[in-house]
Design brief:
Length: 220
């Protein structure tokens, strides 16, 4: 039985029971193997842009006797799957801007029947902004601390929600008050550093806005 680390365990916990999963950027295919082994998913697609990671995924799938349940796909982002094949899509371990590019290239994710489980390693604010501007609703978000790193994990679905400009949510996340405290503190410090750079460049209006947002996040 495959064992997942804290970060991938949090991703797995947001996958719906009985769903067909596509794991984009699967690497060693630990996530789909675990979900099929544990009975959460009857089948899965393990997709990666690189032949090396896909070979590693093939070994994991073969060693665990799941070649009939998990299909391998080689290609860029979501180009390897269709909305007729999957119910849940996991994209984990990439920068927020990379996840945005993958979603933008696959308009079919704007489908109310599909859940996205997203785990950005960096620039989560860019990902949240894109989601809130493109009709998605964040169902829940959790913060995972693994060693010295903080990882947000989001479950989202397309609901055709109106465009939202909630900067507190974009930068502070959709965590509970206590769970998100260390993340909001980290983002407050990040915004202050950005504000210092903008002040030096003469963009005092934007710098002041970022300072105000930073203070709000710290108070939260």
């Amino acid at each position: 039985m495959i064992t997942l680390d804290k970060r991938l365990s949090a991703v797995a916990a947001l996958v719906r029971q009985g769903s067909r999963l596509a794991d984009i950027g699967t690497d060693h295919a630990y996530l789909p193997v675990y979900l099929v082994q544990s009975g959460v998913c009857p089948s899965a697609i393990a997709s990666d842009i690189g032949e090396g990671p896909l070979d590693a995924a093939r070994r994991t799938i073969t060693e665990n006797g799941l070649t009939s349940e998990i299909a391998l796909r080689l290609g860029d982002g979501l180009s390897t799957v269709t909305d007729q094949e999957v119910d849940d899509v996991a994209i984990a371990g990439m920068g927020g801007e990379t996840i945005v590019a993958i979603l933008e290239a696959a308009p079919w994710v704007q489908n109310e029947g599909i859940r996205l489980i997203l785990q950005p390693m960096t620039r989560a604010e860019d990902l949240r902004r894109w989601l809130l501007h493109n009709g998605f609703t964040v169902l829940e978000e959790h913060l995972i601390r693994d060693k010295h790193h903080l990882y947000p994990v989001l479950a989202v679905e397309y609901t055709a929600a109106p465009v939202c400009e909630d900067e507190v949510a974009i930068y502070g996340g959709f965590f509970t008050a206590e769970e998100g405290r260390p993340y909001r503190q980290m983002m407050a410090e990040h915004l202050l550093r950005r504000a210092a750079g903008l002040t030096h460049s003469g963009d005092f209006v934007t710098a002041a806005r970022l300072i105000d947002l930073s203070e709000l996040l710290k108070r939260m």
